[in-house]
From TrEMBL:
The keyword Metal-binding does not apply. GO terms for molecular function: oxidoreductase activity, acting on the CH-OH group of donors, NAD or NADP as acceptor. Residues 15-254 form the NADP-dependent oxidoreductase domain. The keyword NADP applies. The record marks 74 as: Lowers pKa of active site Tyr. Belongs to the aldo/keto reductase family. The active site is at residue 49. It comes from the Bacteria. This is 2,5-diketo-D-gluconic acid reductase.
């Protein structure tokens, strides 16, 4: 498995399996198990996905040695404070049936994420987390967090797909030593991604699927990606992207698809902050 090296020397698989919007416990356990059997070693979940227990059962069922795995989960807004972050971390670890996490992320840039970050720094120093990072942090908030704290986030997981390349954010993160990770690499199928003529023509040229082209495009940019599927054949297909390489002209063609705009609620919109802050889960 190809890896990237984080700013603290930890190696992270460049492709993993995401479990967003798989709340059904049995289905989630089964697809994570299938992903592990297919060769995935990075599994990305979150307390707010309400499926950490199912992920934990799949990990145990798989029999894959713990040292081969890279497990990520995330802290939700309602627990974004110093004390609550430590409690939430302990709950996540118990649900996952793990002794440590490979990566722990602040899920949203809202609430007392400064207090949460200091708690995560403590947990990192105690060896309970191999790396800490953030998700959905725009460059201004990421820089603010960096200059006022001791540990630079190892990862920032943000919306990145063929219609939103995040070129400026990617360059900024590279300058700061923060690994870029993509969520929603397929844009949830919006803008008819799987029927896009540009992507389809590239896929035909390489005898690959549109999904494989998108994932290959991301990893060639050095971006860690976590595709999700509940279909075994797609799970297998999505990891089989290391036997071909996109040409410079392919990359240039995909560049023409960039709208430079998010397809989802903006993190610069106060209504997004209000909505995220009001989402409460029984965690």
């Amino acid at each position: 498995m190809q890896t990237v090296t984080l700013n603290n020397g930890v190696k992270m698989p460049i492709i993993g399996f995401g479990v967003y919007q798989i709340p059904d416990a049995e289905e989630c356990e089964n697809v994570v198990y299938e992903a592990l059997m297919a060769g995935y070693r990075l599994i990305d979940t979150a307390s707010g996905y309400l499926n950490e227990e199912a992920v934990g059962r799949a990990i145990k069922r798989s029999g894959v040695p713990r040292e081969e795995l890279f497990i990520t989960t995330k802290l939700w807004v309602q627990d974004a404070s110093y004390e609550s972050a430590k409690v939430s971390f302990a709950k996540s670890l118990k649900k996952l049936q793990l002794d440590y996490l490979d990566l722990y992320l602040i899920h949203q840039p809202f609430g007392d994420y400064y207090g949460a970050w200091r708690a995560m720094e403590d947990l990192y120093r105690e060896g309970k987390i191999k790396a800490i990072g953030v998700s959905n942090f725009m460059p201004d908030r990421l820089m603010d967090l960096i200059i006022h704290n001791e540990i630079v986030p190892a990862v920032n997981q943000i919306e990145t797909h063929p219609f939103y390349h995040q070129i400026e954010s990617a360059a900024f993160m590279k300058e700061q030593g923060v690994q870029h990770q993509s969520w929603s690499p397929f844009a949830e199928g919006l803008n008819n991604l799987f029927g896009n003529e540009v992507l389809a023509s590239i896929a035909e040229r390489h005898n690959k699927s549109v999904a494989q082209v998108v994932l290959r495009w991301l990893i060639q940019r050095g971006i860690v990606v976590i595709p999700k599927s509940v279909r075994k054949e797609r799970i297998i297909e999505n990891i089989n992207i290391f036997d071909f390489e996109l040409r410079p002209e392919d990359m240039e063609q995909i560049l023409t698809l960039d709208t430079r705009e998010s397809l989802f609620p903006s993190y610069l919109d106060p209504n997004t902050a209000k909505r995220m802050g009001n989402w409460k889960f029984d965690l």
